[in-house]
Structure formats: structure tokens, C-alpha cells
Amino acid sequence: MLRRILKAIDTISEYSGKLVAWLLVVLVAELMWDVTARYVFGIATKWSFDISYMIGATVVIFGASYVLLHRSHVRIDILYSRYSPKAKLLYDIILMSVFFVPAVSFLLRGSIDTTIYAVKVHEFSHTSFWQPPIYPLRIILSIGIALLLLQGIATLVRDVSAFLGHELPSEIAGRL
Amino acid sequence: MSPEVLTIVMLSSVMVVVITGFPLAFGLAGIALVSAYVAGLEGIPALLYFDAWGILTSYPFLAAPLFIFMGLMLERSGISERLFGAMHVWLGGLSGGLAMSTVLIGAIIAACVGVIGASVTMLGLIALPAMLKRGYSKEISTGAVCAGGSLGILIPPSIMLVLYGPTAGISVGKLFMGAIVPGFILAGLYAAYIGIRCGIKPQLGPPALAEERAAPMHVKFRMLVTGLLPPLLLILAVLGSIFFGIAPPTEAAAVGAFAAVLLVVANRSFSLGVLKQTAYEAMRVTAFALLIAVGAKMFTGTFMCLGGGHVIKDIVLSMPFGRWGAFAVIMLILFILGMFIDWIGIVFVMVPMVTPIGAQLGFDPVWFAVMICVNLQMSFMTPPFAYAIFFLKGILKPEWGVETMHMIRGVIPFIILVMVSLGLFIAWPQLVLWLPTKMIR
């Protein structure tokens, strides 16, 4: 059962990360269109600015879970690479539970509160002429942060079980 | 807790957590939360959320994924190989010619592929085997690769400047223009050093044999044009549209990314698979860099809120020898940090702290920023923890017989040259500031 849940979280992180990567291609095309429309056709695209940062935020927040899943975040390994495998696990378990889980939980709490408020008052963006509703992006970010938290907890659960000697096979090989 | 104690505790816990090997982004976010909680701040979830929101929805930061996409795409267009081929034919006959070519390619192309470490790896793969095969000294050749590759993180369009600008509240376009002249002065100093050193002692970088470079003049010219023109056009299009105020850096980056796709198509190496891999890699690099930005924003936000900014300011401003004493202390701190920590973390954590100090000392913000960026690109190749050397180590083949000591001895002259250049920019700030003032808008 636990295995299934962990695997499901991995799969969601993997595919949502790969899916949002394609948004970068969309972003290139969208900004190209914006520039072309302005200089060739003389049309100002009023939605380009807002759409761009919305795409950017979506890519980063879902990319974060992908990065965490693949453990390819920056780590200074001068000392870390010299720990024994057990020590590495223990180190990650302690720091993930003291720093990562509380910080992302608080972040998620802040995100959900703000999103509920934004939906209630129909909050609009005031950063451009277009003034689109901002709550869809707030909802997307809340989902992204929730996924990041889940992926962090999944990583933590795997480390704990590996530390106790029950290796839960990860979809992603080659760590430690 | 007094602000002084809190400052010391917060900064030293970051150092401990990071040096022992916890991912920077999560360490910064966690320490921010714990300190805010201990200090009894109100409404912590909302504070953290608005810090994250500010970074995630930043329009200027968007230039980063686009330039990363452009660089990754360009790596597959074969332009570096072609340029090195052309340089070999034209400069190979000089003593140390290949090492000079390496530095020049670093200045031209590494600038486009300025993703963290990619430029060092790329130059190492293309140029290092060629130099070693022709009997170049291991010190000169690895030094040239590390120094030329590190230029990539400084010369625009570079990711470091894209991330620095919004963090310090400076226009990325101005920073780009400010870094161009210093970047090329560095490249010139490197090339001159190699030329003089190998001119005195030709066995350090023997000239390539004439028959190996023999080609009819029109072939040589075609090689030069096909090698040099595409990257130059791309850089001029991107930087030119920023310089003339046609497009902000984010849009210019999108145009550059699109042009890079066209170059790959022209090289007949485009496929859906290539596009997919480029997009995945750009997503991954962007996510980890901006994740650090989010963590650092939470950290510096809390740190400033609790009065840490004032403590740092008081310490730096109380240094002897006036504003230059304070400047020297800032540069020294950044240099030492740079030997241990990735420049991404330093930019996001230290820049919000030192920028107001620089302003209070009366330094021009663009000049101050460029000095810090030159300093950071120097620390990128400074032992004992030189990222440039680590990246190069990753691609070394045992039969080349290159040891870490060769690389360390190799980079030292170049580090001294960077220090010399810093002196030049202090003596003549116009070297940095002239181009930004000529910008349209």
C-alpha cells in the first residue's frame, strides 16, 4: 500500500515536471508572437506580460517536485560525499524533517489562505492593462506546493525505511 | 534575542547547513522559518508565501529559462566545433594559438551557452584533447579551458546577470551592457598572457604543423565566416535589441531561443527528441535555480525583518580606510564565500544585503554589481573549491594524464589576471560605465 502511494507520488512529479517543461516551448512561441505582432503588424498583445509570468511560475513550482524527485538540487558535497550511506540517510532524515517539511507546510498554509481569499473577492492582477483574474494562478501554485510537500514526504519516508533496513525501491535509481 | 546575536546565529547556521551538504534552497527556507518562529513574528505563512510569489511571478527572471533554453539548444547546433575548427586554421600557427582560441571561443560562445558549468564542459570536450595532442603544457591548456569557460558566466547574455539584476533592483539590460567591456578586457588579458608566455617558451604551446592547417584561402575564409557569423549574429540580435530598446531582456531571450532553434534546424540536427531534451533540461535547471531564489528570498526577508541588515551594514561601515575599506571587506567576503558556495546562492543571499551598503557608500549600482560579478566568476575557478575545476574533472580521460595539481597551477595566473582587471575597473570605472550610458532609453 505504502509502496503504491509512494510510486503514485513519484509518477505525478515525473509527468507533471515533463509536462510543464513543454510550457517553456509555449513561452518561446508566445513571446515570439508578441514581438512579431508588435513590430510587424503593429498590434500590442495586452495579455503577453501576464501569460508569461503565469507560465514561468507554473514551470518552476512543478519543476521543483521533479527536481526533488531526481534529487538534482544543488548540494555542496565537500563533506557530504564522505559520509557513510547510513550517515547520509540520517542526515537527510533529520534536516528534511526539521527544515523542509515545516517550511513547505507553512508555505502551503499561506498559499491556501491567500487562494481562498482571492477566490472569495475575485482578485484581479494589477500589474498590467489586461488585469486578468489572479486566482487561477494561485490555485495552480497551491497544487504545485502541495505536490512539492508530498514529494518531500515521500522522499523522507523512503529514507527512513532505508535507514531501518527495509529498502523501498525508488523509481529513480542512482542516488546515494 | 538581540539583532546582533540573531544575525550571527542565522548566518552561521546557513553556513553549517550548507557546508555539511543540505540542499541550499531548503536549508535557507527552513532557517528562515525557524528564526521567524523563534523571534515570534506574526503571520509567518503569509510572509513566506508572498516571498515565494514575488520570485515566481517575476517577469525579469523569465529571461533565465529562455537563455538557458537558448544555450542548451546552441550546444547542439555544432557552432562551437565549427568555430574551433576555424580558429585552429587561423591561429593554430602561433605559439599558444590553440589556447588563445580556447579563450576567444569562451568569450564568444560560452557567453551564449552560459549555463552553470556548461561552458567549461563544452570547451573541455572540444579544445582540451586538441591542445594536449599537440603537446601543449597541461597547465596552460587546462588553465585556458577553466578561464575561458568561466567567462561564460560573466559575458552577456549570462544567467548570472539575469538573476543579479532583479535581485538588486537593477535593469538587466544595463548590467549586460556594463559587463561587455570588462568581459572582453578579461579575454584580451588572458589571450595576451598565453601569447607572451608561449612566445617566450614555445614548448608550452607549440605551433600546429603547417600541413595540418593547409587549406586554400577561400576555404579558410569560408570556415571563418561559417564559424563566426552565426554566433555573432545571434549575440548581436539579442544584445542589440536590448541596447537599442527594441525589446526587454525577457523578449530578447525568447528571440534568441527561437533563433537557436533555427540554427539547429540549419545544422540538420533538429528533431522532436532534441526539443524535448532541451525543454526538460531547461525546466530542471530553471527550477533548481529559482527554488534557491525562493529559499533565499524567505531567508533574506526574515533576516531583514529581524534587523540583520542593519547589523551587517554597521559592521561593514565601521571598517577602517573609509569607503574603500568597506568595499574591500565586501569583495573579500564574497570571494571567500564563492570558493565554497555556488554563485547562485551567493547572488540570491548576499546581493540583497550588500546592495544597499554599496549605495550608501556612494558607488554606482551598475559598477558595483559588475565588480561583484567579476569577483564571483573569479571565485568560480579559485581553488580549493573551484567549480570550473570540478566540472573539468568530470570529463577528463585517464590517458590525458591531467592531475588536479596541473589544473590548480594552471588557473593561478588567470586568477591573478582577474585581480589585475579588478584594479583596472577601480582605476577607470568608465570601462564598466561607458556602454550602459550609451543605451537607448
Tell me about this structure:
The complex is a heterodimer of chains A (176) and B (441). With 176 residues, chain A is mainly alpha-helical. Chain A has one domain (2-175). Chain A has five helices and no strands. Chain A has helices spanning 2-39, 48-69, 77-80, 85-121, 135-163. The two termini of chain A are 25 Å apart. Helix content of chain A is 74%, strand content 0%. The relative contact order of chain A is 0.16. By secondary structure, chain B is an all-alpha fold. Chain B has one domain (61-293, 305-437). Chain B has 21 helices and no strands. Chain B has helices at 3-19, 24-38, 44-56, 63-75, 79-91, 97-110, 118-133, 138-151, 159-168, 172-200, 210-213, 217-243, 249-266, 272-305, 308-317, 322-340, 343-360, 365-379, 387-393, 404-427, 430-437. The radius of gyration of chain B is 22 Å and the shape is globular. The mean pLDDT of chain B is 86. At the A-B interface, helix 1, helix 2, helix 3, helix 4 and helix 5 of A face helix 1, helix 2, helix 3, helix 4 and helix 13 of B.
Write the SSE topology:
The complex is a heterodimer of chains A (176) and B (441).
Chain A: H1 2-39, H2 48-69, H3 77-80, H4 85-121, H5 135-163
Helix pairs in contact in A: 1-2, 1-5, 2-5, 4-5
Chain B: H1 3-19, H2 24-38, H3 44-56, H4 63-75, H5 79-91, H6 97-110, H7 118-133, H8 138-151, H9 159-168, H10 172-200, H11 210-213, H12 217-243, H13 249-266, H14 272-305, H15 308-317, H16 322-340, H17 343-360, H18 365-379, H19 387-393, H20 404-427, H21 430-437
Keywords:
heterodimer, A: 176 residues, mainly alpha, elongated, disordered C terminus, B: 441 residues, 21 helices
Task: Give the gist of this structure.
The complex is a heterodimer of chains A (176) and B (441). Chain A has 176 residues and is mostly helical.
- Give the total of beta strands of chain B: 0
Count of extended strands of chain A: 0
Largest interface: A-B, 60 and 64 residues
Oligomer class? heterodimer
| Rough outline of chain B | globular
* Range of strand content of chain B: under 5%
Order of helices and strands of chain A: HHHHH
Distance between the termini of chain B: 48 Å
Strand content of chain A: under 5%
- Work out the helicity level of chain A: over 70%
Mean pLDDT of chain B: 86
Estimate the global geometry of chain A from the Cα principal axes.
Answer: elongated
Integer-rounded radius of gyration of chain A: 20 Å
